[in-house]
Design brief:
Length: 343
């Protein structure tokens, strides 16, 4: 049986900023609505720089940030203590978390060692990949059928195909709350490809329920030109919004759905909604992961781990510097679980 998530328009439409939310996503949407011309572009470029730091802040700032967001490796025993007696559920971003950030997003391959680590992790805990990528693409990178996958920033969720002991028998899971936006995303993708051809290094990716404009290979003095070209397309689509991540601009439907909502949906699907004995751990490196970090922080449930070498504003509790540290953290979790089970 195929279990689908039915969501009405009234449930998913944003009411821009009325709830006082000051999350990064809401801030960018607010800027897009109230700014015009040069003010808007300056706001976008400033946000692009903030999302994609290329150098650490001052030593004092970096040191203070580390005290507030200590290494998850150094604090591993503390994390285990917090999870004592609870079911750990793992949520993992892909780019910059399981694989390094590379110039060509089509070549963001995870290592065999990381894949083996995630495979072992999924045998110990329910495990989901939550990515801005198209679900089919991130699944083709990871190549593990026993995982839950949430693509397009959580707008395309599918349960394990096989091999998961957490999957309900004879039941498949599918959640696609933004299906009605598929035609307009395809249309915008084509226009973005055309409009950004004049910007060297720009690459547009169709991620099914969102379109991504990568500027990893664009010179910083061209970021303003790129923002102009993206705005020239987006201004004609009032039901779409711009959010920003690590060297990427994301064009997404204006619906009340993000990685935080995906986390909540997956916990509910696993039977852990409103449970006090569940401990979600979400690991991600991008601004879009902040929606999930904020959910966990506000609920005082589980914890978020930001993957970053540089100090960044975050709702995460702990930090790791790079995918190699993520792998070590996951390996330690597996070893701890196996020792508890006598495996």
């Amino acid at each position: 049986m195929l279990e689908t998530k039915a969501i009405s328009n009234s449930e998913v439409l944003y009411v821009g900023g009325d709830d006082g939310d000051t999350s990064p996503t809401t801030k960018v949407l607010h800027d897009f609505q109230i700014n015009s011309g040069g003010g808007l572009i300056r706001s976008w470029v400033d946000s692009m720089r903030a999302c994609s730091p290329t150098r650490p802040k001052s030593f004092n700032s970096q040191s203070c940030w580390i005290k507030e967001h200590p290494s998850a490796l150094n604090m591993f025993e503390e994390i285990l203590h917090k999870s004592e007696g609870k079911q750990i559920v793992m949520f993992l971003d892909y780019d910059g978390t399981l694989s390094p950030i590379v110039d060509d997003p089509d070549r963001a391959f995870m290592s065999k060692k990381m894949r083996n680590t995630v495979r072992k992790l999924a045998k110990c805990f329910p495990t989901a990949i939550v990515s801005g990528r198209c679900r089919e693409k991130v699944s083709s990178f990871v190549k593990l059928t026993e995982l839950y996958y949430a693509g397009s920033h959580g707008m395309d969720i599918k349960g394990p195909e096989q091999g998961s002991k957490y999957k309900k028998e004879n039941q498949s899971l599918l959640c696609q709350p933004a299906t009605e936006f598929l035609p307009v995303i395809n249309e915008v993708y084509k226009k973005l490809v055309e409009n950004t051809q004049s910007i060297p290094g720009a690459k547009v990716e169709n991620n099914k329920f969102c379109a991504s404009v990568h500027f990893r290979c664009v010179e910083e003095n061209k970021w303003s030109d790129l923002a102009h070209q993206v705005r020239s397309v987006l201004k004609n689509y009032p039901k779409l919004m711009l959010t920003q991540g690590r060297k990427v601009l994301e064009i997404r439907p204006i619906i009340k759905w993000d990685k935080g909502k995906a986390l909540e949906f997956l916990l509910e699907s696993l039977g852990y909604d409103n449970c006090t004995d569940v401990f979600p751990i979400y690991i991600g490196d991008d601004r879009t992961d902040e929606d999930a970090f904020k959910i966990l922080r506000d609920k005082k449930q589980g914890l978020g781990i930001l993957v970053s070498k540089y100090a960044k504003e975050t709702n995460a509790s702990y930090s790791l510097q790079e995918p190699d540290e993520v792998m070590v953290f996951l390996e330690r979790l597996v070893e701890w679980k196996q020792s508890r089970c006598g495996a």
